[in-house]
Amino acid sequence: MTSPSTSPSATTPAGALETGARAGAARGERIRVRARAYLPYLAGKLGAAAVSLLAVLVTGFFLFRIVPGDPVKAMTHGTPTSAEQLAVLRRQFGLDEPLWRQFTEYCAGALTGDLGTSYQFRAPVGELIAAKLPATLLLTGVAVVLYSAVGLWLGTRSAWRHGRLGDRLHTGVALTLWSVPSFWLGLLLIMTFSVGAGPVPGLFPTGGMESGGTSGFGYVLDVAHHMVLPVLTLVAVGYAQTLLVMRASLLDEMGGDYLTTARAKGLRDAVVRRRHAVPNALLPTVTMVFINLGHVAAGSILVETVFSWPGLGGLFYQALSVPDLPLVQGLFVVFAGAMILMNLLADLLYPFLDPRVAR
Fold first, then answer.
1. What region, left, alpha or beta, does residue 113 occupy, with left being phi > 0 and alpha being psi -120 to 50 degrees?
2. pLDDT in tens, 178-223
């Protein structure tokens, strides 16, 4: 048998072209095989996402219909209102129609982007959500990026040096912070760094997104100053989950024979970790990162409420307190839709990280 390196055909230009053509054909065949496996996988995931979105629409409508209380009476709370005026309000918001008709109109509106009209704000729900969305994306987006990066880095280092003092310290701190309620931690940070405690003076605002009266770069600094404590609260609670998942996933990979083979080839330990172990341990962590990205749209109701942040979390709290059914339903659909979209993107990314997923 003749080895490729000693084949006469491989040493001539014609032989090199033939070898390149065979390699190209093999590469093309591999791509076609992957595409044939990926298309049914893609269709299945898109169908599952569509079914999930339909379930969200149905659940969002009926779930909030069982909330106790009359929304029309809640709207007029404290205002003397006759029975005729209440009837006019019910007719105005379509609450006097049969439930099946309310449901069909709700589904038809949601599919065309019309989420109804808010009872308390007397404005389209879509416009209210669009007005609050930038503040939520800014706050939770920054927090998710920070705690995902910190969690991945610390989780990798803890697993690679498991059992050492640093691993035990990181794991203990992460477990402690993961069990801390975010609103409690937020209140603690306000008491310490906003009000001031002992020798520590008040350094940051107690709430809100801006002080007012600033523009340009001063406005950017003002917003960043207001973001410090809420972002710190979200990062402190959120990084722990990413750290623990990455650590557990990497520990499972560290017993693999392929890592022993890589070390036997003379690769440095950092290279073995970066090129071989970490990529294979990323699937569970990628799922979590995408779920966290879904939370970016949902925001954090408790943290936004504690810090009076003018985002979707605070709007959801206001809607629930009435209850403002169209606004609650609209926010529910947006929150759930963001999670479904992020899960779909994570599912579509898996075959590129591990082709066996699509088989």
1. left
2. 888 888 888 888 888 887 777 777 788 888 888 877 778 888 898 9
